[in-house]
Amino acid sequence: MPTQIIAVANQKGGVGKTTTTVNLAACLAAMGKRVLLADLDPQANATSGLGLEKTTGASAYHALLGEGGLLEKIKPTAYERLEIIPSEVDLCGAEIELARGENHLARLRDILQPLRAAERYDVVLIDCAPSLGILTLNSFAAADWLLVPLQCEYYALEGVSMINRILGQLRDNGINPQLALLGVVMTMFDGRTRLSQQVVSEVRQHFGELVFDTLIPRTTRLAEAPSFGKPIIYYDKYSVGAAAYEVLAQEVAARLKL
Hints:
- This protein has a single domain, classed as 3-Layer(aba) Sandwich (Rossmann fold).
- An 8-stranded mixed sheet has the order 3-4-2-5-1-6-7-8, sandwiched between helices.
- The protein has 11 helices and 8 strands.
- By secondary structure, the protein is of the alpha/beta class.
- Helix 1 packs across helix 11 and helix 5 (107-118) runs parallel beside helix 6.
């Protein structure tokens, strides 16, 4: 089965993007899938969320600039079948450096090629920065699928229309004609509020089947887990947040036909 690459992105910050990437990666690995998480957000929250220190020179920065390969950047995590390419502040510089080079939107796709060919992983999840800069566009150009976390709040749909437009542009200008929307994950859902219910039904009207059935709840345990460097299924296995991400992982695996 060829490796499937998923970019997890929303240019709006604070929507549960990194929480979703880390927990989805951990749950897929716990299901027996071989998973690589590539942290391409210079804030490196996915790196610390899996319990790794931010280390100078550990990121994909040099590989993106053509200095060495990506394979040697892969690090193990404390969790079986889950590995990571960490991030660190260096990556901020990559935005500027890449813009000066040729073929600057295809750099990530090129350096991921040997990894694809080796079929070492079932899934590669890319945690994108909360912006539509060059690193995020590189992720879109390299990915097979786009997964969009959406917060259950009033401005949610604005982010989606922007991502839809970018998807269309990447297809139309030939950068990545194959890129498809894997689905929309509704995050920070609070069943007690009418707003949460309204946003979910509006997004479902807009995207139909593409919206995952699983709603990720707003919970204290989910918010706490990253500060302990643990995915929710290892921080509080029996919490509602852990149950939600386990079900989401099953939905994702089904859509990817893993």
